[in-house]
């Protein structure tokens, strides 16, 4: 090989192929040598001259504990990372970090990490060398049809996403399954249809009122650390912002609301249409631009009809509409409970309709602009790819599948038969830090480096006012010599699939450094060499990206009646597999810090439980601490009952995260997995799993245990701890 490559292909393999005219003024030559990426690498434990023993040095990187992409600083002392904090230079989180981000250090030092490659021999996974593991993978890839090779990942972005796409392209496959149990997929689909942009920018700081239909933006929705900072600005305005939340079970956002309204899952779209009816009828909002079918739905759901279906007082519906008009501009959001219904698209579209009627689009909902590097954009997913993967696997259309950053064997409902689908894939490769359920089912397991000892770039799907490519760099040398970074693993696969192109890169570090050097000149300060610009990006932890300004043209969107059908049958209660900050979808169940962190509402630690309204519990003969059976059509979960008023009486909720059969000593055999109980119902428009469309029954057993929680009571001698007051009264007294 000559060591040179034409400019067009160079930009493509660098993940900059979608840059288009943004690279028109670039001073790149027509050919670029790749040899500059090769260099001598020295140990990260070798102390720099400026390091003082006993004094920590902070290095910038990017958090990988969820898909939000917060910037972090890691404190390193004597070659070991000891503490993580937020990066003040990041416009995503402005120096803040959540409990999951803080626990990244514990994931890094977890004693249950995979330390060597493993290969299935005689039915068991045994430790082997990298050469033998990679040899087995290449043997299977050589024998497979290219279109029968797939990747199954969580959210990917940056150059990791570019390399995976390039690997599939090199093999002649387009099968990339992306799975995130906690997602905003239906919200994104509605936004794409209505606004032409899946993830518009939400200006909480400009809103006078926020109406949230189950969007837990302070806990688990899209980018909670960022939204928490924006929420603080929302509350500190001259006229204190008003927050109203409608959801089946109180979330962290609901707990911070001025008005919290419990709703039956599936009725949120009807409530939104009832509010829309009030806006048109009593507040002269114009609906003439809407499709006739949508106008008919608005006319149908007057206050009385809405109240009857949703179980909400008519006056409350009328009052919410009044507040939305009085407190303009406002912002109306739709989260997981609204999306996770068979008619989720219609419900979310009904919620977004309120923003259209209120004139919020262009004020509190803005365009993110056009990101110039398409290959680096976040590849987000939801739950629809679970269905696609199972169907394709059962049809014997997959020969080799790579798994990374997701655990579908744990998160898929039992009725989806994921176990059977995995058995139908002849060869499975898991790239993981831990032996989770999916890794245990793999034929080859490759030990991944933690994100605190690995290179990478990230482009979050949701970007604040300043769009950026976030840099990830090793904060210390690898703890275990046999672990490898994800980028290096994929790059090695590409060196076989496209040897003539990728063999010139010594490693993933060299690839990234070349990619940074290929950025247009405007991304580097005047007079900076490529090496200086690279060092500056690592020091700051990000590269700011100029995005083209765009408006959000509102398009008329038709949708059906969101009213839920009564399909409970013998099962009386709506089931909510609730998400919470910390445990997330179960990916942090192997971290003791997260296990012992109290649930934000119930304050329970270390276990699974079912949240039940006291009136419902009384009717069923259930007491606080009773061990109960929660039964759906597809299984039973045996959990402890926690009686709480912050839930609709017709709802039973079990938090996600526990119930692992594998995943290390701190997670295995603890609690129950509520996702296994779900009916495999598809959302009608997007094909997403309707996670809130399952019904259950609950029955007590003879067992009872003490509820382990921080704080033993929600009351003080029968009195509430804090007496709430209307926001108007607050403004007249303390607020003044």
What is the overall pLDDT average? 90
Question: What do we call the CATH topology of the domain at 185-366?
Answer: Dimethylsulfoxide Reductase, domain 2
How many beta strands in the DSSP annotation? Answer: 27
Q: Kindly state the percentage of residues in helix.
A: 25-40%
Question: What is the gyration radius calculated from CA atoms?
Answer: 26 Å
Count of helix runs: 25
> What summary fits the major beta sheet?
7 strands, mixed
Annotated CATH architecture of the domain at 185-366: 3-Layer(aba) Sandwich
Description:
The structure is a single chain. The chain is an alpha/beta fold. Among the domains are: 185-366, Dimethylsulfoxide Reductase, domain 2 (3-Layer(aba) Sandwich); 573-719, Beta Barrel (Barwin-like endoglucanases), CATH 2.40.40.20. 29% of the residues lie in helices and 18% in strands. The protein has 25 helices and 27 strands. The strands form seven sheets. The protein has a seven-stranded mixed β-sheet with strand order 5-4-16-15-14-6-7, sandwiched between helices. A hairpin with a 2-residue loop joins strand 26 and strand 27. Helix 5 (158-171) packs parallel to helix 19 and helix 9 (268-283) packs across helix 10 (292-300).
């Amino acid at each position: 090989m000559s060591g040179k490559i034409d400019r067009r292909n160079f930009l493509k393999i660098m993940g900059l192929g979608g840059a288009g005219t943004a690279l028109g003024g670039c001073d790149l030559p027509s050919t670029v040598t790749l040899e500059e990426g090769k260099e001598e690498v020295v140990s990260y434990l070798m102390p720099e001259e400026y390091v003082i023993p006993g004094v920590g040095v902070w290095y910038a990187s990017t958090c990988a504990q969820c898909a939000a992409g917060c910037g972090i600083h890691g404190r390193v002392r004597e070659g070991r990372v000891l503490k993580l904090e937020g990066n003040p230079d990041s416009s995503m989180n402005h120096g803040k970090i959540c409990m999951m981000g803080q626990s990244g250090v514990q994931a890094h030092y977890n004693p249950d990490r995979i330390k060597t490659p493993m290969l299935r021999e005689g039915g068991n996974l045994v430790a082997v060398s990298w050469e033998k593991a990679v040899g087995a993978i290449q043997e299977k890839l050589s024998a497979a049809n290219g279109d029968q090779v797939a990747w199954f990942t969580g959210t990917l972005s940056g150059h990791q996403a570019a390399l995976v796409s390039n690997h599939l392209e090199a093999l002649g496959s387009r099968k990339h399954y992306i799975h995130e149990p906690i997602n905003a997929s239906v919200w994104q689909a509605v936004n794409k249809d209505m606004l032409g942009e899946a993830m518009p920018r939400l200006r909480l700081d400009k809103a006078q009122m926020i109406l949230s239909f189950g969007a837990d933006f302070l806990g688990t929705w899209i980018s909670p650390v960022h939204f928490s900072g924006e929420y603080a600005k929302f509350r500190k305005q001259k006229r204190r912002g008003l927050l109203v939340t409608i959801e089946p079970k109180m979330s962290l956002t609901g707990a911070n609301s001025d008005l919290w309204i419990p709703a039956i899952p599936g009725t949120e779209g009807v409530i939104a249409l009832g509010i829309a009816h009030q806006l048109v009828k009593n507040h002269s909002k114009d609906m003439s631009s809407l499709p006739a079918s949508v106008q008919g739905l608005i006319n149908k759901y007057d206050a009385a009809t809405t109240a009857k279906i949703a179980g909400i007082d008519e006056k409350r519906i009328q009052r919410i509409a009044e507040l939305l008009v009085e407190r303009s501009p406002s912002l109306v959001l739709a989260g997981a409970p609204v999306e996770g219904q068979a008619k989720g698209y219609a419900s979310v579209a009904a919620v977004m309709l309120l923003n259209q009627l209120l004139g919020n689009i262009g004020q509190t909902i803005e365009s993110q602009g056009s990101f110039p590097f398409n290959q680096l954009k976040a590849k987000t997913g939801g739950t629809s790819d679970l269905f696609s993967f199972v169907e394709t696997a059962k049809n014997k259309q997959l020969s080799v599948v790579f798994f990374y950053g997701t655990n579908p064997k744990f998160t898929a409902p039992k009725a989806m038969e994921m176990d059977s689908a995995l058995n139908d894939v002849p060869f499975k490769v898991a790239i993981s830090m831990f032996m989770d359920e999916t890794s245990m089912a793999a034929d080859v397991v490759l030990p991944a480096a933690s994100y605190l000892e690995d290179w990478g770039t990230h482009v979050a799907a949701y970007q604040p006012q300043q769009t950026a490519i976030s840099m990830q760099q090793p904060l210390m040398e690898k703890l275990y010599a046999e672990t490898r970074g994800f980028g290096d693993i994929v790059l090695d696969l590409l060196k076989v699939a496209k040897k003539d192109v990728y063999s010139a890169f010594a490693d993933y570090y060299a690839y990234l450094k070349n990619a940074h050097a290929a950025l247009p000149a405007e991304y580097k300060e005047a007079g900076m060499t490529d090496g200086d610009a690279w060092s500056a990006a690592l020091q700051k932890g990000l590269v700011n990206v100029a995005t083209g300004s765009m408006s959000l043209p509102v398009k008329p969107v038709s949708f059906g009646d969101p009213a839920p059908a009564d399909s409970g049958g013998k099962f009386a209660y709506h089931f909510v597999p609730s998400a919470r900050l910390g445990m997330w979808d179960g990916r942090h169940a192997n971290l003791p810090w997260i296990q012992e962190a109290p649930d934000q509402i119930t304050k329970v630690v270390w276990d699974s439980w079912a949240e039940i309204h006291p009136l419902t519990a009384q009717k069923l003969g259930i007491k606080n601490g009773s061990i109960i059976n929660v039964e759906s059509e597809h299984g039973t979960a045996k959990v402890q009952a926690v009686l709480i008023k912050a839930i609709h009486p017709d709802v039973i909720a079990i938090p996600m995260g526990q119930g692992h059969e594998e995943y290390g000593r701190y997670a295995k055999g603890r609690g129950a997995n509520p996702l296994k109980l779900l009916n495999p119902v598809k959302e009608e428009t997007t094909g997403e799993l309707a996670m809130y469309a399952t019904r259950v029954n609950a029955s007590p057993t003879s067992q009872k245990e003490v509820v382990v929680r921080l704080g033993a009571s929600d009351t003080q001698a029968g009195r509430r701890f804090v007496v709430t007051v209307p926001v108007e009264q607050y403004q007249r007294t303390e607020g003044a």
